[in-house]
Write a structure and sequence with these properties.
about 90 residues, alpha/beta
Length: about 90
Amino acid sequence: MNSPNFGVLYDLYHSTVEGEDMAAELANAGDLIKYVQVADAPGRGEPGSGSIDWAARFADLQNSGYTGPVGLEYYPTIDSAKSVRNIQELVAGR
């Protein structure tokens, strides 16, 4: 389908727990990815609460050329506002 209104949601949490290679998945989907959701594994907590290497995953996302929205689909393990600030720091590389 060649429509700007059609796209794929890439769920980083599910991709990780299924053992997929994120860089390969992003390359295979190309411009079809229009929305990305994030949560850490195990447990679906906020990024930084589990074992996912977020510096590497955010680099994969940036290197893929993705510039769209990133949704936060997690169960906070700390105060929600603080968890969002922590994610902003992870994205900024701090």
